[in-house]
């Protein structure tokens, strides 16, 4: 079974870009348009890697991260991908204080950056 990457982002174009960048390499990519849908998707199948938008309507990325962190004995690696890190400094600091594991990447990511992060974090597809 190929490695599963979950992309949680409210912008369909962003989810599509990740899917296009990674499926051609053999990764299995799933998408969710908001935090609750992402949590549900991660419950149904444990992702090997999660790309998570920070600024989403309703449940933001930090709140979503809190829920994702308790779904599995070993939480999957999470890359928070955002252009709004400065607006979320306090919530991101709180997440670090809660020992929630994540890396931060600035939007927009190029296709090669998406692929490089994925290969570095989880290796080549199955």
Keywords:
single chain, 126 residues, alpha/beta, Rossmann fold, five-stranded parallel β-sheet, 5 helices, 19% strand
Mean pLDDT: 94
Largest sheet: 5 strands, parallel
Order of helices and strands: EHEHEHEHEH
Identify the CATH architecture: 3-Layer(aba) Sandwich
User: How many strands in all?
Assistant: 5
CATH level-4 homologous superfamily: Response regulator
CATH class: Alpha Beta
Q: What do we call the CATH topology?
A: Rossmann fold
Number of helices: 5
Our Rg estimate from Cα atoms comes to 13 Å
Distance between the termini: 6 Å
What is the overall shape? Answer: globular
* Quaternary organisation of the protein chains: single chain
**Proportion of strand residues:** 15-25%
Report the helical percentage: 40-55%
Assign the structural class, choosing from mainly alpha, mainly beta, alpha/beta, alpha+beta, or little secondary structure. alpha/beta
Short overview:
With 126 residues, this protein is of the alpha/beta class. Helices cover 40% and strands 19% of the residues. A five-stranded parallel sheet has the order 2-1-3-4-5, sandwiched between helices.
3D architecture notes:
This protein is of the alpha/beta class and 126 residues long. It has a single domain, classed as 3-Layer(aba) Sandwich (Rossmann fold). Helix content is 40%, strand content 19%. It is built from five helices and five strands; from the N terminus they run E-H-E-H-E-H-E-H-E-H. Strands 2-1-3-4-5 form a five-stranded parallel beta sheet, sandwiched between helices. Strand 3 (49-53), helix 3 (61-68) and strand 4 (78-82) form a beta-alpha-beta unit. The mean pLDDT is 94.
């Amino acid at each position: 079974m190929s490695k599963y990457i979950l992309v949680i982002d409210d912008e369909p174009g962003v989810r599509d870009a990740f899917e296009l960048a990674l499926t051609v390499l053999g990764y299995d990519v799933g998408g969710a348009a908001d935090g609750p849908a992402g949590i549900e998707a991660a419950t149904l199948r444990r992702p090997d890697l999660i790309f998570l938008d920070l600024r989403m309507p309703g449940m933001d990325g930090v709140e979503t991260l809190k829920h994702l962190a308790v779904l599995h004995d070993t939480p999957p690696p999470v890359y928070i991908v955002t252009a709004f890190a400065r607006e979320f400094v306090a919530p991101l600091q709180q997440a670090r204080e809660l020992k929630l594991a994540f890396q931060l990447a600035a939007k927009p990511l190029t296709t090669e950056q998406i692929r490089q992060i994925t290969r570095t974090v989880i290796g080549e597809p199955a």
